Amino acid sequence: MPLSLTTLGENTAGRPRVLAEWGLSILVETDDVKILLDTCASTTVPHNAAILKIDLSTIDKIVLSHGHYDHTGGLRAVLAETGSVEVIAHPDIWGAKYAVFGEHKRYIGIPFVREELESLGASFILSSDPVWITDDIVTTGEIPMVTEYEQIDSHLYVEADGELVPDLLLDDRALIMKTELGLVVALGCAHRGMINTLYHAREITGVDLIHTVVGGTHLVSASEERISRTIEALRELGVQRLGVSHCTGLPAASILARELGDNFFFNNAGSRVTIP
Ligand SMILES: [Fe+2]
Ligand SMILES: [Fe+2]
């Protein structure tokens, strides 16, 4: 199964005429199916798709990695191109999500009501479990947090019954592709931990070797210890290629680049990864 992953939106642009915005969107294509993981924050995805000569009307499914605006805010612009399409996500994407810094709170959830998106063609498939899209492509379900060194960002909250409580990000999910070389995993933000996500990917698929990982790793505020234990785990999992995006942060990216050498790259807007 030839597979390609094209990043249609990310914090930085890696090609001429491609635009950047805070957020992430990755198009996964095989001979059989086209799946868009996330939509970035506003209108960069349709712009970049046109530059990269990708026709968004041919997309079969959208998968949302979680409810934050920087992954879902492009839905209106993307749905205008796709028309009717299934949108696979966890029910908690609709939570009233906030970033809280001391006295200040900022709404960071989906910037649309469900009815508007449905009127534009979205039919939501909401599930806490893994969703198989083809025989070889599956989304994670809720990601068990098993490593001791990965924690959810302590600034992230959700409003429930008028009260702000820490957001467990049960909606956090990734997209997994089974290939002849091993698993390819596309991450949104990996809020529940990149390594937890990769362990879960192995559990769901029964495939041990993880060949390629691209996307947001949320190492932006990670301690050096967490970063070094993450690198140790990536080596144990056999990861041959790591393309970091979005919420990785420069300090973590620099360490990963130094430690992983040629196996590391910046996965930014316009990047394309092909397997094999
Ligand atoms: Fe996020
Ligand atoms: Fe994000």
Describe this structure in words.
The protein has 276 residues and is α/β, with parallel strands linked by helices. It has helices spanning 44-51, 69-72, 75-82, 114-119, 194-205, 224-237, 250-260; strands spanning 3-10, 24-29, 34-37, 61-63, 85-89, 96-101, 104-107, 122-126, 131-132, 137-139, 156-160, 163-166, 175-179, 182-187, 210-216, 241-245, 264-266, 272-275. The strands form three sheets. The chain has a seven-stranded mixed sheet with strand order 8-5-4-3-2-1-18. A seven-stranded mixed sheet has the order 9-10-13-14-15-16-17, covered by helices on one side. Strand 6 (96-101) and strand 7 form a beta hairpin. The radius of gyration is 17 Å and the shape is globular. The mean pLDDT is 97. One fe (ii) ion binds next to loops.
Strand residue percentage: 25-35%
Q: Identify the strand order in the major beta sheet.
A: 8-5-4-3-2-1-18
Small molecules in complex: fe (ii) ion
Largest β sheet strand count, sense and barrel closure: 7 strands, mixed
Note the overall shape.
globular
Distance between the termini: 8 Å
Rounded to an integer, what's the Rg over CA atoms?
Answer: 17 Å
DSSP strand tally: 18
